[in-house]
Amino acid sequence: MVGEDSTAELEETFSVVANDIRLDILWTLWEIYTDNPSPDPGSVPFSTLKDRVGVRDSGQFHYHLDELVPRFVTRHEDGYTLTYAGARIIGAAVSGIYTDTQTTLETTAADSCPDPSCEGELELGYHQGHVRATCNSCEERQIMSAPPILVGAHDVDRNPGLLGSFTLTQLQKTVRGFCHLCSGPVEGSVVQQSLDDEVETGENVEIVYECQECEAASYTAATTAILGHPAVVSLLYDAGIDYRKISPWHITRTLNSKERVNSEDPVRVEVTVSIADTKLTAILDENLTVLDCSEQ
Ligand SMILES: [Zn+2]
Ligand SMILES: [Zn+2]
User: Fold this and answer.
1) Which ligand is nearest to the CA of 139?
2) What is the DSSP letter of 199?
3) Ligand lying closest to the C-alpha of residue 185
4) Pfam families attached here (predicted)?
């Protein structure tokens, strides 16, 4: 949970790196490692680091370097290394997470609508940190967060499928229990828990994964919880479908899935997928753990 303490801590953390020399030190450490990649990189001696950063005044350089220890840089007997946070700051700078608000992808019709009964086309676009998939005919709409580098450095114009594989990777990380933003633990739950809401064919039982640390929430359909299940992966493989290439917005359509709440107390969600001639039924509990997954 982000409380007052963490806000103060965050302010302090960002103020530590809001300085040209300190950012240069992080960049330089990063460059020294990437210039000479090694599975077991040693630490960088003070003099090497100082020369590369190009600060003449030893006292001044020492001061700024010390400010980065221990959060972003670790001091060893023979030199310095980047911490995980130090490497993340560089990664964030490269992907433009905090700075790049200009990168956009003009909306292009790129896919069929997730709703099998709709003739419309799904238009994909990227704006202000979000991939948007919108049907040009019905209400279908999905929004997923993604860093600017996704469209800035990848060839998304020519291969819009990259938007799908990136967002699926994020979603699968979440399903496996790691927040896509902060890597904190994620808890799944069923949004709609009532039998009265029994869904029509083709509609979804909404589920949500919430991060217990940063509170980011990812809403999706129950079928998403079983996409990576070995039984489903194998069934798709036998049908000539590589599950890693399914876009998040096409999961239910590709799997021909039917979802319903089949018990309220305890909450149980039943997801039936039909792939080729085989039907597979999975039962999920209230936290989206797969209790059973078997062919019919
Ligand atoms: Zn549509
Ligand atoms: Zn999180």
Assistant:
1) 1
2) P
3) 2
4) DUF7347 (PF24038), DUF7351 (PF24042)
